[in-house]
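Predict structure. Chain length: 331.
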Amino acid sequence: MLLARALVQETRLLLLDEPTSHLDIRHQLDLLHLVRGLGVATPAVLHDLNQAAAFCDRLYGTPAASWRAGRPGRSSPRADRPGVRGARGAAHAARLRTPVTGGLSGGAEPHYRAGVDLFDRSWSALLAAVASLADADFARPSGCAGWLVRDLVCHLVIDAQDVLITLATPADTEPTRDAITYWEVGSTPPAGDDALDALTVRLAAAYQEPRLLKFHLDDVGSAAGRAARLADPALRVSTKGEVLTAGDYLSAYVLEWTLHHLDLVAHLRDVPGPPAAGPARELLEKITGVAFPASFSDEDALLVGTGRRAPTAGERAALGEPAARLPFVLT
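Prediction complete.
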């Protein structure tokens, strides 16, 4: 009622003190989505760091939390974004409009730290988007060919498990891949007959109730997010028979999370899209060696580049020779 009164007054500044207290998770997310869409400055106090990360432009913390101000990350490192260390206090979040996060700070190189921050930002936003879904949304098609939204969410559970396993698998040899060479580029889109893809569909159906699938993703996904924030970005880890630094591994996943966020919202117009499409586009361009024209939005570059959407005649003309190489199938 107090929020409704403030909206009726068309206030230009909204002060919120723990606005999600005593609400269940669905209504918490509904409220934060509503406030973020108002377009007014909104200093707020939030104790859920995942929600603060998913919905805020700036994060501030109490002295006990060893925080400094944090702003949205970019693909290039910035020395003025130290982030968060061992936060245990309240997250003081200002201007609830655009997703952002601060990551754990440490002695790692800025290149690695930026990758961890972007991982945290894109993963937190994806988890928040899934948590906001209605049960009926799980039966709708996703942007992944042949998969419903429930199948995609089940795949995210598996991805989160992979992150946990990889970060717990240290290596003592020199890295063999980085965030760019982690990806293999093919030209043949999935035909839907892959055994693992078929298994994912069966696993998703076994959940029966969307709330169980949401609970499992929140449980495993939150753990993966915490593990990523706690990881030493310079740590060498092993996955798929290759060795990477944890920072490069997590940087590579920014593209994974962003593409799957686009898949999630492909037919769900009311669900917010990914916050890190720009950095993901830069990754795709480095992986493929193709610079998409400036006329392409970041999301269009990702969708067209990976074959999730066919290019228009105008887009093909703007791309020139690389158009004949589409799609770039990443594995």
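Summary: The first strand starts at residue 16 and ends at 17.
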